[in-house]
From TrEMBL:
InterPro entries: DNA_mismatch_repair_MutS_C, MutS, P-loop_NTPase. The chain crosses the membrane at residues 234-258. This is DNA mismatch repair protein MutS. It comes from the Bacteria. The keyword Zinc does not apply. It comes from Winogradskyella marincola.
Length: 520
């Protein structure tokens, strides 16, 4: 554990399980929940794999939820930084916490969240029959010592109980993992809560842990069930199975425990969040330890975005760029592969990590509280008979509706590229003007140089460029002010040995089109 601090996690990532807590959580009071569309546009799963240094499945689910939701809580942010500093500087303290968290690193721990988020099984209407049969078995066993005839009664009841016992197996299978992990969770929380600084994260936690402990004795039955399946001899398991079948212990205890847990959902959630939050702080500390450059963002009310030596977290040896956006939005021009879309994603990801885990991949960053939306990856929806252009129309329409509220960051890549040039430019100008109002910020890339003149009042012009030599194309990936003046697309075709007649015709057509646009 000590050696792994500051390094990437060597583990498999099953996002179906990792997302489980996030998908079921109520986010109605959060500032923003990042949409699946935006996460797909920004390669969010790859980002999560980079950021995740948690030691428990509970912490992993909690971190995922934290990165997908933007919540405003300045007091907690200050406490987080104090704890991260302690975790980073005191390796013995960190290791003791990691050892506790590692107890929740089994796959079954993913299911703890279902105990307070999902509907529990309800006993069937004929559940009284189970109670009656269990009582009959007990009475028959006692009376059999006085009258051997009752052994026949016990055997007959056992046959019926056998059927009911294995009918209930399908019910218990999803809880035989989660309930024992809940006991572990409560135990881990109680050990972590001994630390005075962790107590500040949740002053009411002792009450929640005590309430869960009220059903601890009943839940231990499921912990024993799990251990017998994996650790003790098969003969002991067989004896235990006979006893459970004879008295129908599994259905009686299962529905009894679920009934009690159903009233303790909020308390289980409190303990889950406490442990998950601590694991998240260790993950953030480990992330920062492994970075050459990072900063804590300055989040203020001024409508400007400033970044010094900002990089894309997922690009190895990334070329850094400075950004200074005041009142206007940004229109980016440049050829393919020059770095436009990577830059747009880099800014979006840095603002997301700044707002969620108070960490940016830059020397310094300043930005306001923003909601982030994007339209970068758009594809045909063939199953629903929707073309690329129609999908784009629906996506942009949603962004226009959102833009009315203001204080949004819109990340766009080559707007309306699914239609003809004239209408693309006309619609693009109109939409980009509308999106940039109400204090919104827009970062958009385009190949339509005509838009640069149309949007001068609302957009700052920047570009990425390449250097074309005799046989090579080179990119410096540096953001430059102004609009792109050099066009090298046809030259790149020539470098790649396109037929001479194709190159010559393309050059002639290009010159003629330049004359038309210049005249107009």
């Amino acid at each position: 554990m000590k050696a792994s601090f500051g390094k990437l996690k060597d583990d498999a990532f099953d996002f179906d399980y990792i997302q489980k807590y996030f998908r079921n959580k109520d986010h109605s009071e959060d500032f923003q929940v990042l949409s699946d569309k935006t996460c797909n546009d920004l390669d969010f799963e790859d980002l999560f794999i980079l950021l995740d240094r948690t030691h428990s499945k509970v912490g992993q689910q909690y971190l995922y939820n934290q990165l997908r939701t933007i919540v405003v809580n300045e007091n907690k942010a200050s406490l987080n930084e104090t704890l991260i500093k302690k975790i980073t500087e005191d390796s013995d303290f960190r290791l003791s916490v990691q050892k506790r968290l590692d107890k929740l690193n089994r796959k079954e721990a993913y299911y703890v969240s279902t105990l307070f988020q999902e509907e529990h099984l309800h006993p069937p209407k004929w559940f009284f029959v189970i109670k009656l049969l269990s009582f009959t078995s007990l009475i028959s066993l006692v009376l059999a010592f006085f009258n051997p005839m009752f052994f026949m009664v016990l055997l007959a009841v056992f046959c019926v109980n056998f059927i009911l016992h294995y009918w209930n197996k399908k019910n218990i299978v999803e809880y035989v993992g989660s309930i024992p992990e809940l006991l572990k969770l409560n135990s881990v929380a109680s050990h972590l809560y001994v630390n005075d600084q962790f107590k500040k994260l949740s002053t009411d936690l002792p009450k929640s842990m005590a309430i869960i402990n009220e059903v601890k004795s009943r839940m231990r039955f499921f912990q024993l069930e799990a251990k017998l399946q994996g650790e003790l001899e098969i003969i002991l398991w067989f004896v235990f199975e006979i006893v459970k079948t004879m008295f129908l212990l599994e259905p009686l205890l299962l529905f009894g425990v679920l009934k009690r847990l159903n009233t303790k959902r909020n308390h289980i959630h409190d303990v889950f969040q406490f442990v998950g939050h601590i694991d998240m702080l260790i993950s953030i500390a480990s992330l920062r330890e492994g970075l050459n450059t990072y900063c804590l963002p300055n989040i203020n009310a001024e409508n400007q975005i400033i970044a010094k030596e900002m990089s894309h977290p997922l690009v190895f040896n990334c070329v850094t760029n400075d950004v200074h956006l005041s009142e206007k939005s940004v229109l980016l021009t440049g050829s393919n592969m020059s770095g436009k879309t990577t830059f747009i994603r880099a800014l979006g990801l840095n603002i997301i990590t700044g707002l969620t885990i108070n960490t940016c991949f830059a020397k310094a960053m300043t930005f306001p509280l923003l909601k982030i939306f994007s339209a970068i990856r758009i594809s045909d929806d063939l199953l629903n008979d929707k073309s690329y252009y129609f999908e784009e129309v629906l996506t942009i329409k949603e962004l226009l509706s959102i833009s009315q509220d203001g204080n949004n960051l819109f990340l766009l890549d080559e707007i309306f590229k699914g239609t003809n040039t004239v209408e693309r430019i006309a619609a693009g100008k109109s939409v980009l003007s509308a999106l940039a109002r109400n204090g919104n910020k827009v970062l958009v890339s385009t190949h339509d140089i005509e838009l640069t003149d149309m949007l001068l009042n609302q957009y700052e012009l920047y570009h990425f460029s390449e250097t074309v030599n005799e046989n090579t194309v080179g990119f410096d990936y540096k953001l430059k002010e102004g609009k792109l003046k050099n066009r090298n697309a046809i030259k790149i075709l020539e470098i790649n040995d396109y037929p001479k007649e194709v190159i010559e015709e393309a050059m002639e057509i290009s010159k003629e089109m330049d004359k038309i646009y210049t005249t107009n």
